[in-house]
Every structure is written in C-alpha cells, then in structure tokens.
Amino acid sequence: MGKKTQLIDTLFGGNQDPLANIIHNVAGIATSPNGVVTAPIGTFFVMTSSGTAASDDDVYINTDGASAWTLIYDASSRGHLYA
C-alpha cells in the first residue's frame, strides 16, 4: 500500500474522494460542530452564513467518525473563502 493510500485511509476513512463529503451549518447558527454534529471520519464542515463574520467560512474536519471535529481553517485569521 502506497503512502497516498495510507494517508487517505487514515484521514478520510478510505473515502477516495474526500471533497465529496462537505456539510454546512444551518443559516444564522454559529455553533462549532464539535460534540454536536455526527458524520463519517474525514467529512468537512464549512461554517456558512453563521450570523457572525468572524466565524463565516471556518472549516472543520471530523476526526473520529462520530462528533469530534477539529478546526483546520480559521477564516478570521487566514481569509474568507470565495464562491
């Protein structure tokens, strides 16, 4: 097994297309998904329309296949995503 496959298996639960699993919050709700939202390991969560400019476009990744999420992109310090 190559390093690429090992990395995908570890970080994205074997999902060969990690960008296929992107979810977002309910408009106007600025709550971290950690401990609240359940999803497969490696799923991305994008904070959109949170009601606070500071948290809009933050990106989290699910780290346990349940409800543990880690912030991997802090838009307030790194810049906002653009459509």
Indicate the structural class: alpha+beta
Output the number of helix runs. 2
- Percent of residues in helical segments? 10-25%
Unreliable spans: none
Globular, elongated, flat, extended or rod-shaped: what is the shape? Answer: globular
The largest sheet, given as strand count, sense and whether it forms a barrel, is: 4 strands, mixed
Measured on Cα atoms, how large is the radius of gyration? 13 Å
Distance between the termini: 36 Å
Q: How much beta, percentage-wise? A: 15-25%
Strand arrangement within the widest β-sheet reads 1-2-3-4
Number of domains: 1
Walk me through the structure:
The protein has 83 residues and is α+β, with helices and mostly antiparallel strands. It has one domain (3-78). Helix content is 17%, strand content 18%. The protein has 2 helices and 4 strands. It has helices spanning 3-12, 75-78, and strands at residues 22-24, 44-46, 59-62, 69-73. Strands 1-2-3-4 form a 4-stranded mixed beta sheet, with no helix packed on it. A hairpin with a 6-residue loop joins strand 3 and strand 4. The radius of gyration is 13 Å and the shape is globular. The chain starts with a helix and ends in a 5-residue tail after the last helix.
Explain briefly what this protein structure is.
The chain is α+β, with helices and mostly antiparallel strands. The protein has one domain (3-78).
Give a topology summary.
Elements (H helix, E strand, L loop, with lengths): L2 H10 L9 E3 L19 E3 L12 E4 L6 E5 L1 H4 L5
Parallel strand pairs: 1-2
Antiparallel strand pairs: 2-3, 3-4
